[in-house]
Amino acid sequence: MKSARPNRTTFYFDADLAGFGFYRTPGDTGTFFAEFRPVAGGAKKRIKLGRVGTLKANEAREAARKAIANAALGKDLAQGRADDRASVTVKRLLDLYIERTRDKKKASTADGYELSASVNIVPHIGAVKASALTRREVQVMHTKVGVGRGKYAANRAVALLKAAYSWGGKQEHVPAGYNPASGVDRYKEEARERFLTVEEMQRLGEAMVEAETIGFPVNAGDAKHAPKGPSVSFSMNKKGRARQWIGTPTRSSPPNSAIPAPHDKNKKPPPGEI
């Protein structure tokens, strides 16, 4: 893979194991594969084992060895995978995708996916074979969810289904590139307004009073370039101008009990003001 990119898809075969190799595309993507001829005769068959970089060479070689051995015993892994794809339903595909999501994202995200799938997707198309689902069926589902549960829920359901198919294609649960949720017309979403509750308004008011009287300390934490020395507080005087203090005033210790910050000698501002 370190050599120059080929102008067309190029196949490379292993010198030790006949039928094992990888191919490289002009886009610089490599994929391990195994080739074998069925015991019953006919043309050679080739199955993908995994991407170069994701699958190690020794792991791919062992997988190829098993595939070729199974072919010699009359077991057709390529047909077996095709049968598996045909038997996977939309519900099963979503279950597999959400299970994988729990290892990659927050639990709350996976829980949200599971709720959307069980409420908005599965009741409509869960029993349909994943490889046979059409875009029209997804569009009908989207419309029904939009009417029953809202536009936002409908759009999120389609987004989840699209992600599940994209992942499923990479895992060979569905044919690669097959995604009936792609291209579905979604609802136009608008920004949603939210008003503060009475309790939130009260807390905001208290915070504003504290900022104008006591001030909030500025603390850069343990950052690499954090300034050293005492913390700095800011408050507002009666004229609405900012007042800076070195130290951290408290409710029992008014701002003028802290040490005033040094002023710029050239500007000569009024005492205690910046």
From TrEMBL:
Q: Where is the composition biased (Polar residues)?
A: 247-256
Q: Alphabetically list the UniProt keywords.
A: DNA integration, DNA-binding
Annotated region (Disordered) at 220-274
A Gene Ontology molecular function term of the record:
DNA binding
Q: Which Gene3D superfamilies match?
A: 1.10.150.130, Integrase, DNA-binding domain (3.30.160.390)
Where do the Integrase DNA-binding domain residues begin and end?
15-81
Tell me where the signal peptide lies. none
Similarity remark: Belongs to the 'phage' integrase family.
Protein name in UniProt: Integrase arm-type DNA-binding domain-containing protein
Q: Which species?
A: Bosea minatitlanensis
Give the taxonomic lineage as stored in the record: Bacteria, Pseudomonadati, Pseudomonadota, Alphaproteobacteria, Hyphomicrobiales
